[in-house]
Amino acid sequence: MMFLLQLMSGSFPAQEYIIYGLALKTSCYPFIYRLSCFGLRWKRPSSDNFGRKTIMNLQSPSPKLSIIIPCFNERDTIEKIVAAVRSSPIQYKEIIVVDDCSKDGTRDILAGTIAPLVDKIIYHDHNQGKGAALRTGIAAATGDIVIIQDADLEYDPGEYPLLLEPFIQGKADVVFGSRFVGSRPAPVAYYWHSLGNWVLTTLSNMFTNINLTDMETCYKAFRREIIQSIQIEENRFGFEPEIVAKVAKMGCRIYEVGISYYGRGYSEGKKIGWKDGFRAIYCILKYNLCR
Ligand SMILES: Nc1nc2c(ncn2[C@@H]2O[C@H](COP(=O)(O)OP(=O)(O)O)[C@@H](O)[C@H]2O)c(=O)[nH]1
Ligand SMILES: [Mg+2]
C-alpha cells in the first residue's frame, strides 16, 4: 500500500529502485552460473530423450509388469506379500524375488511355498544390501515396466494400477508412489521418520531441480529399458537418492501418484536406520555433484 501511495504521489524513487534491482540481478548471475557449473540443473527435464517407438509400445492397455522383491530376513511377511502381489489386478506380470542371504528361515519358505507362485528366485551367497539385490533383480527383468516391491507389508500391491496409469497413457518414463500426496485414508507414521524423509527429499530436490514429495518411497516404477540402462552403484539404501539423481539427469519424464502406506516398526523387522540417513545425504551430493 505504501508503495502504491508513494508511486502515485511521485515520492517513490522508482528509477533508483529499478537500477538497484538491475544491479542486484546482474551481480547474482555469476553466482548462479557458478552453481550451475557445479552440477546443479536449472533446466526443466526434457521429454524427448527417449524414442517415440518405445513410448508408443507402452500405450498398450496391458503392459507386462516385472515386480522385483528384495528380501532379507522376512519370514513373517514374505508369503503374505507374494500372495498380495499375485492377486494384484495386473493382467501380465512377472515376479522376481532376490534373497540376500537370509538367515531366519526365509530361504526355506522361498524354496517351498513361494517357488510355485513366482517366476524367478535368485539367491545371493552373501548379504550385500537392498541396492545390490535390486541390481540383480532388475538385470533379470523382462517386462515393459519394472517396479520395486519391498518384502514387508508397508506398501499395497493392489495399487499397482495407479502407478501404471501414466505409463499406459504414454506420459511417463518413471513413476514414483508418494506417501505424502493424495487423500486416501492412511495410518499415522513415525514423526521423526517423516521429518527425516522430508529433509532428504528437499535436499535431493534442490540438486535435481524436480519437486518430488517422497524421494525415499519404495514404489519406484520405470520403463524397463531406462532402469536397465542405469548402472546401480549403491549396495544398500543409498540406491534411492542415487536412482533419483540419475533419472533426473537423464531428463526422464517423472510422475508421482499418491499411494497408501502402512509403516512397520523395528520390532516388526524394519532395517533402515539413522546411518542410512547420513549415507543418503552423501549419495545426494555424490550423484548430483560429482557425476
Ligand atoms: N536384499 C536385501 N534387502 C534388504 C536388506 N535390508 C533390507 N532389505 C529389504 O529392503 C526392504 C526395505 O527394508 P525396510 O527396513 O522395511 O526399509 P524401508 O521400507 O525403506 O523403511 C525390505 O524388503 C527388506 O527385506 C538387505 O540387506 N538386502
Ligand atoms: Mg519397508
Characterization of this structure:
This protein is an alpha/beta fold and 291 residues long. It folds into two domains: 2-37, no CATH class; 49-264, Spore Coat Polysaccharide Biosynthesis Protein SpsA, Chain A (Alpha-Beta Complex). The chain has helices at 2-9, 14-37, 52-57, 78-86, 106-114, 130-139, 160-168, 191-208, 224-228, 239-249, 274-289; strands spanning 65-71, 93-99, 120-123, 145-148, 174-178, 220-223, 254-258. A seven-stranded mixed β-sheet has the order 3-2-1-4-6-5-7, sandwiched between helices. Strand 1, helix 4 and strand 2 form a beta-alpha-beta unit. The radius of gyration is 23 Å and the shape is globular. The site of magnesium ion has 3 residues, from loops.
Short description:
The chain has 291 residues and is an alpha/beta fold.
Protein topology:
Layout: H1 2-9, H2 14-37, H3 52-57, E1 65-71, H4 78-86, E2 93-99, H5 106-114, E3 120-123, H6 130-139, E4 145-148, H7 160-168, E5 174-178, H8 191-208, E6 220-223, H9 224-228, H10 239-249, E7 254-258, H11 274-289
Parallel strand pairs: 1-2, 1-4, 2-3, 5-7
Antiparallel strand pairs: 4-6, 5-6
Helix pairs in contact: 8-11, 10-11
Could you say how many structural domains there are in total?
Answer: 2
Q: Which percent range fits the helix content?
A: 40-55%
Order of helices and strands: HHHEHEHEHEHEHEHHEH
- Which class of secondary structure composition applies to the elements? alpha/beta
The tally of beta strands, per DSSP, is: 7
Low-confidence stretches: 1-56
Biggest sheet record: 7 strands, mixed
